[in-house]
Design goal:
alpha+beta, 16-stranded antiparallel β-sheet
């Protein structure tokens, strides 16, 4: 049996790993029905003049995801922000992204629908609604350079998740040794005024337009709150750089002063003016769709291979612990399979997954506003290729 739910959203919380279990217990006590938990690491640069030659500091973090009906988003985010004390500097972040539609096949657990929204719990006045989430997937050797580029362009310290990649590597035969199965997903949450510059800086340093270098994409965030540090210092200052930037925003009455191109035109110093000119407009503006499939971990590799055989260009698998309110001390092992496809292909692929995969699963789609990846150029069938480059 297939159940379809409309108006669902994914709420994501990023906090210190040592606080995750306590926050989860408080959320369950506050009425949350289920949540997914996984580990991640943060990124901090040291506040030293020679920081560019030092390794990044990697604090351990936890990522909590909840798939909830839209009427509950404000209430859950407000209470989660309070329980996780996200008003404190560097405490973490929380944000939500809407799903187009959500389908459940089999006995997969889902938020019940027999509750009503509590209108008095409205957090809209406390949350920012002009945010963008940026994700870059790579093999890992360029992760630190990408993180530095993102922070130099104005983002907080990026969050890094581990993932398994399927697709291209599986088609390489013995050459698969040249492509690692493990991937790293670098993610940042930035205000829209900074999104273009951060996106372009990460794309250039990540070399995503080259074969085998990965993929970068961005998505609109419905609501969110960012409070993640990017600089570590033993010296205690009265305010963080994020607090200083927000104060200048309030004084100026807008965020236009952050536009580095505008600063340069008025004689100020800036960096990265050539970023956007180096990216093809076709690849940047091409709309795509993110398809997410939640499955039991034991079935993830089989289902991933089956989806690749349906024509999906590739897939990434992240592993989660699934907790429920009924038994918050025990968990099940789940996997999330993520696929980026062109908009016209998404609906057909989603239908095939629901009809042909004989396993319990949950599947939903979300719009991707911008993306860049290597695209194999159209060539005559007689043209010989080497590493994606035509040779005579």
């Amino acid at each position: 049996m297939i159940i379809t739910r409309h108006n669902m959203s994914v709420v994501t919380i990023i906090i210190g790993r040592h606080r995750a279990k306590k926050v989860l217990q408080d959320l369950f006590a506050d009425g949350i029905h289920s949540a997914l938990l996984t580990s991640a690491r943060g990124t901090l640069m040291q506040d030293k003049w020679y920081q560019s030659i030092l390794s990044m500091i990697r604090p351990e973090l936890a990522v909590i995801q909840m798939i909830v009906p839209d009427p509950f988003v404000d209430r859950i985010m407000e209470r989660a922000a309070r329980l996780a004390q996200l008003h404190r500097s560097g405490a973490g972040s929380i944000f939500s992204k809407p799903c187009v539609d959500l389908h459940v096949k089999g006995t997969f657990p889902l938020w019940p629908i027999d509750q009503e929204e509590l209108p008095e719990d409205d957090a809209s006045n406390y949350l920012c609604e002009n945010l963008t989430a940026i994700y870059l997937i790579s093999q890992g050797e360029r992760t630190e350079a990408v993180c530095r580029a993102a922070m130099n362009a104005g983002s907080h310290g990026p969050i890094i998740l581990f993932s398994e990649g399927h697709g291209l590597r599986d088609r390489l035969g013995w050459l698969r040794i040249t492509n690692k199965p493990t991937k790293e997903i670098v993610s940042v949450l930035v205000e829209n005024v900074d999104a273009d510059l951060v996106f372009a800086a990460m794309a250039e340093v990540g070399q995503v337009e080259h074969v085998g270098r990965g993929l970068i994409y961005r998505m609109s965030v419905q609501k969110g709150l960012i409070n993640i540090d990017s600089v570590y210092s033993k010296t205690r200052h009265a305010a963080s750089i994020q607090q200083i930037i927000r104060a200048i925003d309030d004084i100026k009455g807008n965020k236009d002063w952050r536009d580095q191109d505008s600063i340069a035109m008025h004689g100020g110093a800036t960096a990265g003016l050539g970023f956007m000119s180096k990216l093809s407009s076709e690849s940047v503006c091409k709309p795509r769709t993110l398809i997410s499939i939640l499955v039991y971990r034991d079935n993830s590799h089989e289902i991933s291979r089956q989806i690749i055989n349906m024509g999906a260009p590739g897939a990434n698998i992240n592993y989660f612990q699934f907790y429920t309110q009924a038994d918050s001390t025990q968990h099940q092992e789940f996997a999330q399979i993520s696929i980026i496809v062109d908009e016209p292909s998404a609906i057909e692929l989603e239908k095939r997954i629901l009809n042909e995969v004989e396993q319990d699963l949950m599947i939903f789609t979300q719009p991707v506003t911008h993306s860049i990846s290597y695209e194999l150029p159209m060539q005559d069938s007689t043209t010989r290729m080497y590493r994606g480059v035509p040779i005579s």
